[in-house]
Fold each of these.
Amino acid sequence: MLEFLWLIPALPFAGSLVLAFAGRRLSRGGIAAFGVGSVGLSCITAFAVAAGFIGQAPPGHFYVQRLWAWLSVGGFTPEISLYLDALSLVMMLVVTFVGFLIHLYSSEFMIEEEGYGRFFAYMNLFVGSMLTLVLADNLLLLYLGWEGVGLCSYLLIGFWYKDPANGLAARKAFVVTRVGDTAMSIGLFLLFTNLGTLQIQELMRLATERWAVGSGLAVAAAALLLGGALGKSAQLPLQTWLPDAMAGPSPVSALIHAATMVTAGVYLIARTHVIFSLAPVVQEAVAVIGALTLLLAGFSALTQTDIKRVLAYSTISQIGYMFLALGVGAWSAAIFHFMTHAFFKALLFLGAGIVINALHDEHNMFKMGGLRSQVPVTFWTFLVGASSLSALPFVTAGFYSKDLILFETWASPAGSRWLWAAGLLGAFLTSLYTFRMVFVTFYGDAKMQVSRKPGAIMTVPVVILAVLSVLAGFLELPSSLGNVRIITSFLGSALPSETVSPGAAGAGTALMIVASAVSLAGIFAAYLLFFKKNLAADRLAGFVPGRMLHRLWFSGWGFDWLYDLLFVRPFFWFARSNKDDFSDLVYLGMIWLTGRFNNMLSVSQNGKVRFYAAGIAFGAVVVIAIAVFL
Amino acid sequence: MNAVFYLSAFVAVIATIMVITRVNAVHALLYFIVSLLSVAVIFFVLGAPFIAALEVIIYAGAIMVLFVFVIMLLNIGSEAAEKEKQLLSPQAWTGPASLAAVLLGELIYVLVKGGSGAGGIGIIGPRQVGVSLLTKYVIGVELASMLLLAGLVGAYHLGRRYRKERRRTA
Amino acid sequence: MTASVNLDHALILAAALFTLGLLGVLARRNIIFILLSIEVMLNAAGLAFVVAGAKWGETDGQVMFIFILAMAAAEVSVGLALMLRMYHMLKTLDADAAGSMKG
């Protein structure tokens, strides 16, 4: 089955091409058939390949499919070849499966939109690029996919391009991620010049051979790759684009800005974990950045009123958890959390999409309310997703994945109590803002009339994701609860297993109890504040420091303001003052000089034969003089 | 023979000065014929009798007759000489004269400095010239014939009156 | 014929005639005189060729004079035809009047 691997990215690309060229001639049904069908087939192929891989594991637990040589310059011969191991297999399954569900959902969600074909062309292109990224055998091909998903993100955020604000959000996302991408491309140059290849496995092998732990080159390479990951995964300090990226349609937010693309950074770090292991400083930075990001984003999420922005900050925060896990060396835990997060966050975005759609594109959740009885299926699935996000103990997938991360943060030699405490505080914040959203949106009095109820095509993916948001957790159970290790043992062939410092191993149960308590406390606090309408929150916000804090959090800690001040304004100022390009002066000067000479010489063209004869005579005099006297 | 040479040279220079200073074109033409004839004498002295003959027959004869015909065709009245006199102000001469003087000075400097001296002169007769012309320079002769043909065609074309002009004069 | 003529002096004569012709071209405005002056210059050039030929005792100088003669004939025929046309169009022989090619 493994030889069909190339079909998995090829099918969405083919779908994208068909829709791009023939999208105008197809009916909406036809567009949906191509758009959803290509990803569906890709998903089926992915499962078949996965079955083949698991059923009869290839030697060394990896499979390389060489398609063709991309180019050959000097000693540089990157290939278009696909690399399948446990890590890329998990990523590939999540991308294709969640991608397929979201495509299915979109086929109904977007049905009334003008650019139906365009939407699916972009979405298919995205899935294809994402699969290229995940399955790439070398970093150059990975970079191609990396830029491909960035492009699709840009195109889809600005999908409703008639509103200039959406275009602005799209540009912001593109430019901010570009900062990270530039760092990453420099990192690739660095790796290539020093190690002479971009083939990932070869690179990892050479890096361990040639670079000592903590050597300058390893640190630089890891830091530059981290830069790329920070941009793509919206981590501090490049997180500002993600909340604005919510300008795109909800399925886009679900697919690109929650489930798949934003976790590309996590994948990149996991993929090149050897380099990060060689640079402990950078790996520590990954953990610290993750912890900081999850806290900052968590606080910001508390104050948002736009339901999608809450989810956006929540996404940043959850990716912060993954970075925290990567930083402490819990590679598998990060990928596990990526998987569960993909399920429940996609679910939440799709649910939010249904709610927004039902209420005439209303994004402000304080204008919603009482939706529990009006869209019951959505409510229940949303509640499952929210519970999973807030890590409701024992029954949800989010609990197990987050608990694993918290345990590793505590127990890993690279971890620390402070990082654990940050993660714990983040967990409290997560349940607080999640259930704030749930209570405000679905409980209380109905303030608006539901105009459109979701059909079966939209409901089915949501229900499937809800089921997965619960069941996926049972793939990995802590030692005190049955000790199931399907994910970690499966990923063990591709990623190093977690190390647990002696003495901390026994703390697992206690830590789990603490984490559960914190998560429940968050839910309870939300219940008090937003269900019982306890006025404490309003009163707190009424005080001056409280109000200022609220404003600070609402604006995402003022990063936009800061970047505006530091980069955007100086840049605009420079662009304005350099409107008449300095470097053009040379060329303008040449034009001016030529014109001058033209005027001067045209005086000599006076049409008088005698004048010309005098010119010849004068020239003869000068030439003879030079010949005779010099 | 030296005396003949210097006398002829003197006449040639004086006659040429008269050519460029006359106001009446026919007078200038006659002075030019004098100049050509004295140059012909110089050719003879220099041992080129054939060239001397050509100078008289073709230059002084044919080409100058062409000039005379054209001046007659133009039929310029006596008022033209008056107008010509006005154009010949002393200021009009200064610039060209100084330029020409500088050029002459340079040429004489070169010649005096070069100092080729008196060369061995023998008479080179028409036979030798004709043999050289039709053997060594036969291609030049062909080219000259083409040039003359082109001159003929050009002169014919330019001398034709255009229909528009004819209507205007009619 | 004896070879008693100083050839330098003959060349100086050629130079003098040439510069006189140049002076005529530059100073005169009447196109008849300009053409005459050009003839003077051509004749002077021819003289220089013949002198040079005499110096080396070769025929080449005389051959060149014949070529110059042919060229002068062609030049005069075209030049005079042009002059006639100009006189018909402009009703003047002033060379400066024909300035419509001014840049």
Note: Chain A has four domains: 1-187+226-261, 279-534, 547-579, 581-629.
Amino acid sequence: MKALLAALSLALAILATPVVAEPELRGTGDLGVIIERASGSALIVETTGHSKLARVEGLGDVSHASVVFSRDERFAYVFGRDGGLSKVDLLEQKIVKRIVQAGNAIGGAISDDGTLVAVSNYEPGGVRVFDAATLEMVADIPAAFGDDGALSKTIGLVDLPGRAFAFSLWDAGETWIADFSGGNDPQITRIRDIGANPYDALVTGNGRHYIAGLFGEGGLAHVDLWAAEPKATRILPGYRKADPALPVYKMPHLEGWAEADRVFVLPAIGRHEVLLLDAATFVPAGSIPVHGQPVFAMARPDGRQVWVNFAPPHNDTVQVIDIPSRTIVATLKPGPAVLHMEFAPRGHEVWLSVRDADEVQMWNTRTLRKVATLPALKPSGIFFTARAHRTGL
Amino acid sequence: MPDRATAFLGAFLLSAAPAFAGDALENLVRQDCGSCHGITLKGGLGRPITVQALADWDAETVAQVVLNGMPGTAMPGWAGVISEVEARAIAEGLKKGTFQ
């Protein structure tokens, strides 16, 4: 009997060996992170086979979360609504470091050299900057404005070339540039009077143009960061005032611009249209009527198409605009509450998070057909690792 | 295209049953109100709307703000999306902490 048991346990040991073997080697260039906004979790996915690799839990309140990636595309930094900053190892599929750095936050950015991670905070208003390796705080930049030292909520935080960040002050109508090129004590440039209540901002892929949307007055503020003394000029001033009756059910996002046939395409605020801007002069170049209030107007990486999703009650729909002809070539109905769209790095597919269907869908951008779906819990933001090598994402 | 919003509102006025009730109403509040107020309702670009934060507000006033918005802020009026009955249910739920 003893001999039999020994033989059995030996057999079991041999059988068990492959389970503890070294993990298979793999790259991270086709990986991504999908935020599950209601459950404090995120999926690590691979985009070649449209599959889930792992679910990472314990990320806190990720109801408005965003993600940036380390330069080696191994680590994802997840910025939560609750001020949480989590560093996730995509290969080990786990959180390797997590801090709660503020009470209420809205997003982050990583410096071009990969050494600094900055977070935009509502409470306390300002930006905090952390060592990307350790998440130790490197700099605290309270967004104090006015005479009483009140702190503004900050929005539109982006990375700029030269170890710098730019962000805007919702309450103060200012844009600040924090330059860390000389070390970890930043040089701050304040650009005042950019306009009322900037709600989001972006920087163009070359790091030159910073554009903030102005909720308080419609229109946008444009800062040419290559100027010797950057200042804000208005684009489309007051276009919203002409039509104040339309309530804004969801703040548009400005990320996702790309130059397409010499124009930039951006979501109008409140109106059922996307706006076109001349990419060289930033002069308005017309508009295209769309199905509802646009939230994202995302250019396919080649700039030939722009995909648009919408605020409630039109958020079951996605429209595809053909940029050369300025026409809508498809009105798709992916399902209830399409929150976010992320293109494959060269644009052959786009992933859509369909929140209230609890799934992510993959669509072929040429045939405009759905090619796959993946279950996810109340999915929102989708972020692919290729963002690591793009300015402003 | 304001005509579309009007048509949508009209559709709701014509329908007898509320479009959002129970879990659907909770989902609307947590997810869509939550895009500004946070999924935990503790605030974001919009102010906190927890039981504590609304202690000094009566339900009727909250319902009116939900329907008509708050001038001078980013809070929109939702009268084009939800009915008065639904707005009242949201207001009462917020006061009771139903969605937290």
Note: The interface with chain B takes residues 37-38, 61, 63-64, 81-82, 104, 106, 122-123, 153, 155, 170, 197, 199, 215, 245-251, 272, 289, 292, 312-313, 337, 355-356, 378 of chain A (CB under 8 Å).
